[in-house]
Amino acid sequence: MINNQIAYYLGSKIFAAILNLVTMAVFVRMGGKETYGLYILQIAWAYMLYSVTMQWLRFSFFACFREDNGADLIATYLRMLAIGFAGLLLVAVGGVAANMMTAGFALGIVILVLGLASYEALSEIARTRLQARNVAIGVIIRAVLMLAFGVIVLSYRPSALGLALSVGAAHLGAALALLLLSKNIGQGQWSASAKKSLWDYGKPLIPAFGLDALGLQLDRLLLARFGSLETVGIYGAASDLIRQTMIVVAEAIAGAYFTVARKAAEQGEENQAKDILGQAFLAYTALTFFAGAFVLRFDRPIFDVMFGVEMGAAIEPIAAFIILSNMAAIYRAYYFSQAIYLTKGSHNLLYSDAMQVAITLLSGLVLVPLYGAAGAAIAMFAGQMAGIMVYLIAWRSHYILKLPYRQAAMVAMMAAATYLLSGLLERSMTQNSGLAILLNILLFGSSSALVAWRLNILSFRDLVHKLAGSKKGRTGQ
């Protein structure tokens, strides 16, 4: 089951990541640094508003779903989401009427939140029901539409509002595709008991997700307060690119492993759940350390190609800090914050998010005015690590933390050794930099493949055996 889940999730995420990177480069190059910076701020406010109003429903649904109550829970979930959006619409209209925001800004926020809420709801329903193929189709459609709509808008009139509307519309298009692919999604009825289950589990999530969204956007908001939109655009583009290279696999890991681990925990198979969590933890370790080392080694060529030489030169001094902050964010968001759904309560998410926001804000107020973008990245790293520490203390005796730490340390050391060896190779071939880059890419590829094979990360060894068996069978015929 896990192998099939991984194939769908990882395949679609890799395809979407390539398109998303192209989309990001197009947005920056066609729109310019200031337009992209303003667009980032609009996305930040939309995400924070969505998180504090409706995102909790998605995760509460995942935690509460059981096969015997599935239809009614889905129906109740979607109706509660519609009520939440109606309330948001009234708030937006009121804000415009009271001159608290412009009509254009309100429209961008509303469309973004509607798109996010609709897409994530239908994607979560499919993921929870183990319909990985449908999730993969939705991921691909969203990526294609974001690029297509973005190019159309930027060709006509480059603006942050236009980009926000195109991204919101892309999410709505993918949500419609997921709705058409879903089976039996409309057979359930509104259920008071389902509403109570969603609300009881989700109550701590409402402030938690509000704090989480604020914590994830604080670096950009602080930069906007103490810097310029151009600085926000440069920092945001670099951070988004690095995060995208990691999130593509992180989401595949979460989608494949945690759904199956939660089902095993439901059935009382604690040892099986623990083993699956251990596999997920090793996968996250390989992802963060190898991706981080790769981007750090090739930072200048990557950013030059994506955003131009001028932005590449501006990003290079802060790349290491941004990489570290995103590595910590992946662990906190995709292991620890997913693992709460194998526990009896969600309150630790609230405590972790509160600690993250507090440390990010306090350190950011000191560091950002002094060090600019580098200070923002350091503050984000400090906040993420503080949030992780909350989980480590709270779950110190729980099986969730009985993980293969020794193997994880070996993976990290292998990534560090690969980075150092690639540096030696680079310095020894200064006269032929093109060949050095090619050899280093092969070095990183072979090293990460060796680790994936040795520890069977993301079922890599099983997949190779399966492909080899298929090829052997065709040859035999």
Q: What shape does the CA trace take? A: globular
Rg, Å, rounded: 22 Å
Number of DSSP helical runs: 19
Low-pLDDT segments, ≥5 res: none
N-to-C CA distance: 28 Å
> What do the pLDDT scores average to?
83
Q: What features would you describe in this structure?
A:
It is a single chain. This protein is mainly alpha-helical and 477 residues long. 86% of the residues lie in helices and 0% in strands. It contains 19 helices and no strands. It has helices at 2-31, 33-53, 55-64, 70-97, 103-128, 132-156, 160-181, 192-202, 205-226, 229-266, 270-297, 299-307, 309-315, 319-339, 347-371, 373-394, 405-428, 433-455, 460-476. α3 runs antiparallel to α9. The longest helix has 38 residues, at 229-266. The radius of gyration is 22 Å and the shape is globular.
